[in-house]
Amino acid sequence: MDTTGILDEALERLHATGPERNGWLTNHAPMAVEALARHGHAAAVHRWLDAYAPKLEEAPAPHAPVTAANWREALGDPARITDWTRYFARELADRPWREVLAEWWPRLLPGIAGGATHPVIRTGHAVRTLLAPGGETAPRRAELAHALGYWAARHRPLPPLAPLAAAPDAAAALSAVPPVPRQEGGIRERLAQLTAFPVWGSAPDPDTAKGLLTELVTAATHRYATHGHGEPIMLVHAATAPNAVLRTLPALPRVLWAPSLAAAWTASAAVTAAYTPREAAPYAPAGLAPEEVFARAAAHGDDHTIKFTDTALDVGGPLALAAAVRSVELNPPAL
């Protein structure tokens, strides 16, 4: 946990920028600096931000305020990103953040794949900071407003999906996900081709849902070790998106845990279908301690690599660490 105040400084610095760049590429800086600070690299945060800063853009101009009366028509409209951020900033100024999150979580879950799953990932990082001891600071509440606003603006449900044969566990379910027919173009073009997923993840109670979600994060992280070469950047989201949901569960009413599992499975399966390679590849054991693996990711500097390694450390164990090292090897360094 960052006790230096550097994370809050970094978030304040970033809140003058928009959540996207170059059209609709995501600004990953809020998520990456949170992971750096959490794993003992707060001293490197501003240097990392200095290197990332040329990619950042100003927040888009506002259009018209989002309100309790008109939010449905604004949902999924990327031109309303700033309107949505301002709406959530007002909500979080007037109400406890857990109350706002609980109200909006089920509204946003159907669009979990929107923005290539980055909005839910940003939300998971924001919630983790707020749940930390002494974490309910103004910059962290503002970060939740930015994350939820981004998600609302990029909200995009997947096409209707038919059920395929049931899978016995998460690893088997991911292996049974059919690749989209044309693995080319951006993620929106790929997700539009989805037609069916294996049946997996039925949870009769909240604790079962949490256990299955943990299993899914573990399976997706492990799978990266053997399949990450299919698309090294995009496939990290098959693990980081469900892990963002898992991190958020402690802040949510338990009645929302089972639907959260279902949405997380959909997100992980969608990314897997869009980018998974046809064949597995060998990997080497990491042979490093967790803190050494994260230090390697931090020195590498790529935002996706940092976030995936953060998830791999949540999973723990030799195969997760090997997957994290694989992400360092596969993705181009940024520092």
Notes on the structure:
The chain is mostly helical and 335 residues long. Helices cover 57% and strands 4% of the residues. The protein has a two-stranded antiparallel ribbon. Strands 3-4 form a two-stranded parallel sheet. Helix 11 packs across helix 15 (303-315) and helix 14 runs parallel beside helix 16 (318-330).
Pick out its properties:
335 residues; two-stranded antiparallel ribbon; globular; mainly alpha; single chain
Output the radius of gyration: 19 Å
Mean pLDDT: 97
- The coarse silhouette is globular
Strand order, main sheet: write it out.
Answer: 1-2
Structural class: mainly alpha
Described by its quaternary structure, the protein is single chain
**Which stretches of 5+ consecutive residues score pLDDT under 50?**
none
Tally the helices: 16
Helix content: 55-70%
How far the N terminus sits from the C terminus, by CA atoms, comes to 24 Å
Count of distinct strands = 4
What proportion strand?
Answer: under 5%
Q: Describe the sheet with the most strands.
A: 2 strands, antiparallel
H/E element order: HEEHHHHHHHEHHEHHHHHH
